[in-house]
Amino acid sequence: MNTDRIARELKKIPLVLQKDALHWNKIILEGVDYIQSYANICAKIFKREFNVKKSNSLRKIGQIKRQTLRNIRQINKRRKELKESVRLLNIIQSRTQVMYERVRYWSNDELLQEYDLESSLAAGNMLELLRFLTERYNLEWEALEMVIRHLKNVASIDEAKMLVQIWLNSTHAEGQEFLSMLAELFQPTEQHQDASQQDAEYD
Fold first, then answer.
1. Is 57 helix (H, G, I), strand (E, B) or coil?
2. Fewer CB within a 10 Å sphere, N or C end of the chain?
3. Contacts of 147 (CB under 8 A, 6+ apart)
4. Where are the domains of the chain?
5. How far apart are CA 183 and CA 179, in angstroms?
6. DSSP 116-183
7. CB–CB of 107/13 below 8 Å?
């Protein structure tokens, strides 16, 4: 077993997690704008459908239908953007799951323990952080993937609002637990970067 390669990989993980966590948050927040826009457009369509039923003017009905077709194109665009958001989240989710499984395996390997590789696990919290992120990403992705599946079947403004609320509940970056875990990750990562820069200055 190549312990040097494993040690190098462990040192890279904090930077990958930091980048992915920030990217995850960015995607979630962009998705908030997309899903809220989607719900607003749905509200316009449902209101126009009600007006069509009340109107006796063929000209008015034709105008409403043209506006509705334009809104449907906008909805399709928002749906495409949301699907892409969830696809990108799935990439981060899968990568984090793989890292968690690898670090968990290394942590339990008796041969690797002889090489004191735990010192590379970001002050001993790497495995716990990976477990935390893996569970959180899995739960959030499942909820958002469900939102995507239901986008085509929205039949009322209340259903659209419900999907918005599910997405809003996934803006986990505002949670104190998440911020605390990230702070623990960033601190050793930043210290490592500062030490590397200092070493370079003295070379």
1. coil
2. C
3. 35, 82, 86, 163, 166, 167
4. 3-195
5. 6
6. TGGGGSTTTTHHHHHHHHHHHHHHHHHHHHHHHHHGGG--SHHHHHHHHHHHHTT-GGG-HHHHHHHH
7. no
